[in-house]
Amino acid sequence: MFIDQSSTLPPLFAATGRLRLAALHPLGRAAALIGAGVLVGSILFFLILPTLLIIPMSLSQTDYIQFPPQGLTWHWYQVYFSDPDWMAATWFSIKIAIATTASATIIGTMASLAIVRGDLPFKNALQVLSVGPMIVPHVVFGVALYLVFSPLQLTGSFIGFLIAHTVLAIPYVVITVTASLQRLDPTLELAGLSCGANRLQTFFRVVLPNIAPGIASASVFAFLASFDEATVAFFISDTGGKSIGRKMFEDIDFNLTPVIAAASAVFVAVSLLLMGTTHLLTARKAGQ
User: Fold this and answer.
1) SS3 category, 10
2) For this UniProt entry, which segments traverse the membrane (predicted)?
3) Looking at CB atoms within 10 Å, which of 2, 84, 97, 249 has the fewest?
């Protein structure tokens, strides 16, 4: 015969046991949350650590990259800003990135409108093709571009880099702007059309102001995708036109000095500044 021993215990002990069993669940959830937080924090720290180490290595007094650095100096930043090869590669990459931002943002926004608002029979195929450059390995894409650009004498040219980086940046614009359009209430556009505005007026007066934060974020992603790109640039660069990524690869092979760390620190600062500015503008727009 089975005897429920809990019923034979005094009421006080039985109640205490039930309270302890009930208390295990909140403690278990708290332990799981703490464990998950420690795991996520460790992963983020591991990802950020190389970027943080760049800064002290760029201040080293030695002629080679070393950590921990021996002494602190701004010498390598002065070398970076005064070296004509570094400046030529930097300004070339900046010009390409600005042009890529404009072209990729316009083309990507138009593609997003066709995907979200259009009634096209091949809309799914367009969506897949627009994000295809993110799926294809950049090495394969770089080799293909070199085989196409070399006979046309586009390697190392502004137009060649613009075409290549625009193709690589469009997926970031399409993904970001598509998300903004999907959150926009279609009845706002219908209201604009019912008030007598045509499609073009409705876009500029109703749609564009509402998706402007998304377009701003997309343009920043496009700029960074072009400016930081190194794999494809390695294939389509030459002596006439060389991106900053290609310049870094060359110095890593033949002239490994802390000036590479100084250039990297400058790029990290510029990227953080762009992302922070975009976040502030987006937050201000959302608060209005």
Assistant:
1) coil
2) 30-55, 92-116, 128-149, 155-181, 202-225, 256-275
3) 2
